[in-house]
Amino acid sequence: MNKLIAALISSLFAMFAFAAGHTATPATPATLKAEAKADKADVKATAAEVKTDAKADASVSKATSKAKVKNAKARSKAATAKAKARDKTVDVKPEDQIGANAKADKADAKADAKADKAVVDANATVQKVKVDAAADKMKAKTDTAAVKASGAADVKASTAK
Question: How would DSSP label each residue in the chain?
Answer without folding.
Answer: -HHHHHHHHHHHHHHHHHHHHSPPPPPPHHHHHHHHHHHHHHHHHHHHHHHHHHHHHHHHHHHHHHHHHHHHHHHHHHHHHHHHHHHTTTTS-GGGHHHHHHHHHHHHHHHHHHHHHHHHHHHHHHHHHHHHHHHHHHHHHHHHHHHHHHHHHHHHHHHH-
